[in-house]
Amino acid sequence: IDWDIETGWHDARVTPYGPLMLDPAASVLHYAQEIFEGLKAYRHADGSIYTFRPEKNAERLQRSARRLALPELGVDDFVESIKQLIAADGQWVPDAPETSLYLRPFMIANESFLGVRSAQKVGYYVIASPAGAYFTGGVKPVSIWLSTEYSRAGKGGTGAAKCGGNYASSLLPQAEAYENGCAQVLFLDSEEGKYVDELGGMNVFFVYKDGTLVTPALTGSILEGITRDSIIQLAKDRGHTVEERRFSLEEWKRDSEAGEIVEVFACGTAAVVTPIAQLKTPDFTIGDAEAPAGELTMAIRQELTDIQYGRLPDRHGWLTRLDA
Ligand code: PMP
C-alpha cells in the first residue's frame, strides 16, 4: 500500500514477490525511517489458516509509526493486508507440526530527499516465509550473554518501537553472545545498567518457587511483546501472581543462588517460549548450562502453541481466521 502526504493510503495491491526499486536518495536508506512487525499464520488440523492477535501487531505498528514519524495504518487495513496475502499465497502455510508461515509487514520512508525530515512518501509491504519448527529434536534450554558494554535502548529512545535501527545496534552485542557460546544477548537498562530489560529479540520471565512470575515492566525501552502479554494472561488464568516491575541483575543472582528463582524463560513470536538455563557475564554466571527446562515454562509453551494451532479452545478470542 502506498502513502503520500496529499492522498494518504492508496493503491493496495498484491504483486508477485520481487526486488523493490529504490532511489539511492530514498530516505529509508539514510535515516532508517523504517518499522516492521512479525507474526505467524498457523494451519489447523482441518486445513484452515489462523493468525494470533493481529490487532496487537497492528496497534504496535501504529505506535512504532508515531515514534518514527511515519503515517499510521488502520488496524483493519493491517489485518486485511495479511488476509490478501494469504488469499494469494495460502498454499505456503505448511502443515507439519509446529511449522508456520512467518509474516513480515514493514513500512519504509521512500521519498527521494536528502534533508532530515519525515518523508512525504511511504510504502507499506507484507512479505512471508515458511518457518520450520524452531527447535528440532525437542526444546533445548539455552545460555544467554549479558552485554556489559551496550544497551539496546535509552530513555526517550526508540526501544518500545519495532524499528530496524534497534536491531542494527544489537547486531554487535549479539555477535559477542555467539562468540561466548550463547544463543542471545541480554540487555540491561541504559540509565543505571542495573535492571533487566530484554533479550535481542525476546522478552524475559522469572519464575519463583512460590509460583510468582516476574517480568520487567514496560518502561519505554523494551518492546511490548505480544507473547509476553499472552503469557501474563495464561499464567494468571492458572492462578499465578504476575509482577511487572523493575527487576535487577543483582536480584536475579541473589534469588537464583538462594534457590528462590526456579525457572527463567524468554518469549517471542519466533521461538514462542525458550527456557534459559544460564546467564553468562564476563565476571560470573547464574544458573547451570545443563539445567533442564522448567515445568511451568514447558506447560505454558504447550498451552500457548495448543491455542495457536487450534488444539485447545481459543478462550480469549486470540485467533483470527485468514482464509475465509
Ligand atoms: N523483544 C524484542 C526486541 C523483539 O524483537 C521481539 C520479537 N518481536 C520481542 C521482544 C517479542 O515480541 P513478540 O512476542 O511480539 O514477538
From TrEMBL:
Modified residues (N6-(pyridoxal phosphate)lysine): K162
InterPro entries linked to this entry: Aminotrans_IV, Aminotrans_IV_CS, Aminotransferase-like, B_amino_transII, BCAT-like_C, BCAT-like_N, BCAT_family
Keywords: Amino-acid biosynthesis, Aminotransferase, Branched-chain amino acid biosynthesis, Pyridoxal phosphate, Transferase
Pfam families found in the cross-reference section: Aminotran_4
GO biological process: isoleucine biosynthetic process; L-leucine biosynthetic process; L-valine biosynthetic process
TM stretches of this protein: none
EC number(s) recorded for this UniProt protein: 2.6.1.42
Cofactor: pyridoxal 5'-phosphate
Enzymatic reactions: L-leucine + 2-oxoglutarate = 4-methyl-2-oxopentanoate + L-glutamate; L-valine + 2-oxoglutarate = 3-methyl-2-oxobutanoate + L-glutamate; L-isoleucine + 2-oxoglutarate = (S)-3-methyl-2-oxopentanoate + L-glutamate
Gene3D superfamilies, per database record: 3.30.470.10, D-amino Acid Aminotransferase, subunit A, domain 2
Enzyme class of the recorded protein, top EC level: transferase
Gene Ontology MF: a single term: L-valine-2-oxoglutarate transaminase activity
Pathway named in the protein's UniProt entry: Amino-acid biosynthesis; L-leucine biosynthesis; L-leucine from 3-methyl-2-oxobutanoate: step 4/4; Amino-acid biosynthesis; L-isoleucine biosynthesis; L-isoleucine from 2-oxobutanoate: step 4/4; Amino-acid biosynthesis; L-valine biosynthesis; L-valine from pyruvate: step 4/4
PANTHER family, alphabetized: BRANCHED-CHAIN-AMINO-ACID AMINOTRANSFERASE, SUBGROUP IIII AMINOTRANSFERASE
Family: Belongs to the class-IV pyridoxal-phosphate-dependent aminotransferase family.
NCBIfam families named among the record's database cross-references: ilvE_II (TIGR01123), PRK13357.1 (NF009897)
Protein name (Swiss-Prot/TrEMBL): Branched-chain-amino-acid aminotransferase
